[in-house]
Amino acid sequence: MSQIGLQLTVAFVDVALAAVIAAIVISTINIDFDLDKLVVGQQTEFTQAVARSTGVAYRHDGWARSDLASVAALVAATGGGLEIRDNRQAVRMESPGFARLASLKRTVTDPVFAGGHRVGSVTVAFPSKQASTEAAALSSARGWTSRIEESAIAVVLAILVALPLSRLIAEPIDRLIGVAHMRTGGDREAHVGRVRGLAKLRELALAFDEMAATRDEQDQLRRNLVADIAHELRNPIAVLQAGHEAMVDGVTKPTPEYLLSLHNEVLRLARMVDDLQRLASAEAAALQLSLVKRDLASIAAVAAASLSDSFAAANVTLTERLEEAEVMTDPLRMHEVVVNLLTNALKFTPSGGEVTLRTERSDGTCCLRVTDTGIGIPEAELPHIAERFFRGQRSAGVAGSGIGLTIVSELVKAHHGSLDFTSKQGQGTQVTVTLPLADSRRSVGAS
Question: Which of 11-20, 194-203, 338-347 bottoms out in mean pLDDT, i.e. has the lowest?
């Protein structure tokens, strides 16, 4: 048994013993109380019997001492003392030692009647804590031997219950602790897996594995991001370094054409830094969005109008089919989403092609679709096109850093929406952004 299992078993046994001890204490108090009641009742009945016997011994002129001898003997047999008084409270008889017993304050007084008239009273003084034979037997039956047996039985039952139950609790916890130590030591492959135990502990193990997988994924994304940035920065920096060294060494003259080439590399670096800033801003959009109720069709129309000159210069037709649909959105961020999608479609649509911008409502949601008649995306590349710095093989001659769709994906997630891509090579691509309608989001929040 593991240390946790042993501790749990000991805890169960401790609880059982505490419960037994508490039960013994309570039962002892109750027994003592019941014994006291029993003794007081018996003493009262005995005193009443003495009073009746004293009444029988009464004569018209009082009691003769010989008549009271049998009564005194009855009381003396119990170890008690007897005092008899008449109606004038004059003591007619007092047994030896009565005063001493009466000082213990264990006395019972009862009136004496003869011929239907009260003729006096008797007071019986009992020894301290006197108990009847039945009471003594009851007290003995509840002695320490019986209590020890009860405690032993409780401990055995506690162990029988604790062993399987502690194992159900301890095994998943031990497994979780072990895997946590393994992952802290650098073993990223360690996982809890399926464990036996209570339902909540199995759920905890599953949640731990999911958390570990998410962390591994985030770590991998961070490593990929560093590698991607290093790769993207290497070429322009190498060009700038080689060009400046060539001019310093006098190998190349600083002609306007050559300086313009280096300047273009500087602009490329500046665009990369700007794209990285935009990506960081997009990833934090969930904390920065200012959501208001707006018509998505109006936002899309404004974004399309801002790119009309670019479409005209590229000889690509931009068709708008916009249906009014109100959503909770950050207008500036959603404008950026539409501009990115339209710009991306324009880059990969040849002259004479067409790009269609559409908004439509459906079952509590609104869809924003950008469809082009461009070169399309290979099926193998579709799952990766929203990843940071991903650029397909057919985009080698197209300017860009490869994070435009990444920004779109982050902003759509921040709007509680979804992003979907469908494409066929040589026929074009369709990008669909699905957002909840404003009324639908309000009703979900209210429920």
Answer: 11-20
